[in-house]
Amino acid sequence: MPEVASRAHLEAMVPTIQRALKDAGIAASDLDGIAVTAGPGLAGALLVGVSAAKAYAYALGKPLYGVNHLASHICVDQLEHGPLPEPTMALLVSGGHSSLLLAPDITSDVRPLGSTIDDAAGEAFDKVARVLNLGFPGGPVIDRWAREGDPEAIRFPRGLTGPRDPRYDFSFSGLKTAVARWIEAKRAAGEEVPVADVSASFQEAVVDVLTRKAVRACKDNGVDHLMIGGGVAANSRLRAMAQRRCEDAGIRLRVPRPKLCTDNGAMVAALGAEMVARNRPASAWDLSADSSLPV
Ligand code: KG4
Ligand code: ZN
């Protein structure tokens, strides 16, 4: 509910900033600049953030940096693993996005190679969990169930992996439907649904496609580093398979801890700090929120 989200942002904004500064032991006057998500995202929520950031920057006499949400998902890894080598390849997988991005320069040049043409990966986890009556969010529960199941039990479809399909785009809607049909058929036959096997087999299909395409993107573009971010990066099977496939291909894998993978404020600050460090120009005072801001 966008309206509720905007109001919640409005109410939480000032107390959250004050608490963050207090917890970090930093005075507002010591900040180097103010970074804010300019997009993409929910227009109302973005507007609240951009307006607040402008007010703080203007009142404190600090430069303002409008940053891209997806680029900051990549940059956050620096907080955990140090400077990101460039170019970096990034696989961003959450409830809202599933993208492969090539970043020759994290502050000014992030190129989308491919993304989902229907559902995001996290969305597929959530929808399959709903069909299995496992609750929301579905990712963590399916991850847990899958540990008890056989990933080879059911062969679910791997979307867009044919020789003529786009190399870097994803599709999870057909997979979600295939899983739902399989479950319906079991229930119609009066048989018990093997939750662990369905979870493991579904998860395997998602993770297989994500890691295969991410490694392919690295090889095609001569990049020897892959970072994975977004809420789905918490998935244990994704981490394990990515690790194995990257090792086989001579690619170094970087995955931030789960708290930094999901949406957070530190990632916006991380990209803002990088803009300051690289002397990038600040945003103009007429910076506006753009719900569909491209990278
Ligand atoms: O980045 P995020 O916290 O929020 C946005 O979507 O922007 O990602 C949330 C998504 C949800 O769809 C959730 O089911 C998924 O990440 N997720 C997982 C796991 N933990 C969270 N998916 C698979 N395995 C997990 N362990
Ligand atoms: Zn996000």
Would you give an account of this structure?
It is found in: Cytoplasm. Substrate binds at residues 92-96, 126, 139, 143, 235. It catalyses: L-threonylcarbamoyladenylate + adenosine(37) in tRNA = N(6)-L-threonylcarbamoyladenosine(37) in tRNA + AMP + H(+). Its main location: cytoplasm. It is an enzyme of class 2 (transferase). The chain is built from eleven helices and seven strands. It folds into two domains: 2-72 and 264-277, ATPase, nucleotide binding domain (Nucleotidyltransferase, domain 5, 2-Layer Sandwich); 86-256, ATPase, nucleotide binding domain (Nucleotidyltransferase, domain 5, 2-Layer Sandwich). The strands form two sheets. A five-stranded mixed beta sheet has the order 5-4-3-6-7, with helices on both faces. A two-stranded parallel ribbon has the order 1-2. 49% of the residues lie in helices and 14% in strands. The chain is α/β, with parallel strands linked by helices and 295 residues long. Helix 5 (121-131) runs antiparallel to helix 8 (195-220), helix 7 packs antiparallel against helix 8 and helix 8 packs parallel to helix 9. Zinc ion (ZN) is lined by residues 69, 73, 94, 96, 230, 263.
- Residue stretches low in confidence (pLDDT < 50, at least 5 long) are none
CATH architecture identity of the largest domain: 2-Layer Sandwich
Report the β-strand fraction as a percent range: 5-15%
pLDDT averaged residue by residue: 97
The total count of helices amounts to 11
CATH fold naming of the largest domain: Nucleotidyltransferase, domain 5
Order of helices and strands: HEHEHHEEEHHHHEHEHH
Quick one: how many beta strands? Answer: 7
Strand order of the largest sheet: 5-4-3-6-7
How far apart the termini lie comes to 25 Å
Name every ligand kind in the structure: 5'-O-[(R)-(carboxyoxy)(hydroxy)phosphoryl]adenosine, zinc ion
| Relevant CATH superfamily of the largest domain | ATPase, nucleotide binding domain
Question: What is the chains' assembly state?
Answer: single chain
Helix-and-strand structural type: alpha/beta
- Write down the CATH class of the largest domain: Alpha Beta
The overall number of domains is 2
> Which overall shape is indicated by the principal axes computed on the Cα atoms?
globular
Largest sheet: 5 strands, mixed
What share of residues is helical?
40-55%
Rounded to an integer in angstroms, the radius of gyration calculated over CA atoms is 20 Å
